[in-house]
Amino acid sequence: MQSNEPSTVPRTELESVVPPTIDAESTVRTADGVELHAVVAGDEADPLVVLLHGFPEFWYGWRAQIAPLVEAGYRVLVPDQRGYNLSEKPNGVRAYRTRELSADIADLIATEGRETAHVVGHDWGGMVAWDLARRYPETVDRLAVVNAPHPTAYRRQLRSNPEQLRRSWYAMGFQLPRLPELACRYDDYRLLERALRGTAAPGTFSDADLDRYRRAWDRDGALTGMLNWYRAAARHPSSPPTERVDAPTLVVWGEDDAALVPELAIDSTGFCRESRLELLPETSHWVPHEAAENVTALLREHLAEGAAVSPAR
């Protein structure tokens, strides 16, 4: 393991993101043998919603959804996934296999004293959510995935769609040792800044947002941990027991995603027993930021269909 111990977010910094009227805390939980930092908000008795970020974000990527979901009557748990920001960063590529990442979330749900939760994921967080729903179906009440394809749909598009293969070039580049870390760190993380601002609508990421992201990227071992997700996916592909997702699933997709073709959204719903697809035109990959209110409304509606919680409280 890396030598740095996971820490928490100072109260003042947390309250600058989550309104002080919302009962929230920054905490560290042990899950699957790894120390994970998480922000937890809302009444402990309310239905649990887990929000999973993707690359190159951290828990902060879901900041716009935390308070509205709490106000709608949910307990919200938003981790820094392993390798990211304040969470532990295990050594070695194998530690970032998808099966380990989804085991983290299954155990994290258990730390809340729950057997099940609603699970929402964006980008790589969505890939973990897909795997969790297939590998640990008993832990997922309702599933929501934002711009993250079902793994089988993704493999099929890579084989049959030259445009998707072209858009996935960066993931192949990440397989190299050390060089991707150097490229990402160069010129104050300019490459990662471009990955956010260069593919999003103007104004989506403020200077203050980028300052927070740079601090997260600059933590000891973080870049390698983040990139090891891609390396592990290529070298140690996941094989859950089933392709089918039984949990009722909402797929939200920004059609102007620079990395993923819209056909993936349609194909992904074919692997769900019960699904709803929401395609958002003129919206990039960064849907939770660009269409924050729309995403929150869709989540509240989807989750309320499976729980004794009204769409608005």
UniProtKB/TrEMBL annotation:
<dbReference type="InterPro" id="IPR029058">
    <property type="entry name" value="AB_hydrolase_fold"/>
</dbReference>
<dbReference type="Pfam" id="PF00561">
    <property type="entry name" value="Abhydrolase_1"/>
</dbReference>
<feature type="domain" description="AB hydrolase-1">
    <location>
        <begin position="47"/>
        <end position="290"/>
    </location>
</feature>
<dbReference type="InterPro" id="IPR000639">
    <property type="entry name" value="Epox_hydrolase-like"/>
</dbReference>
<dbReference type="GO" id="GO:0016787">
    <property type="term" value="F:hydrolase activity"/>
</dbReference>
<protein>
    <submittedName>
        <fullName>Alpha/beta hydrolase</fullName>
    </submittedName>
</protein>
<keyword id="KW-0378">Hydrolase</keyword>
<dbReference type="InterPro" id="IPR000073">
    <property type="entry name" value="AB_hydrolase_1"/>
</dbReference>
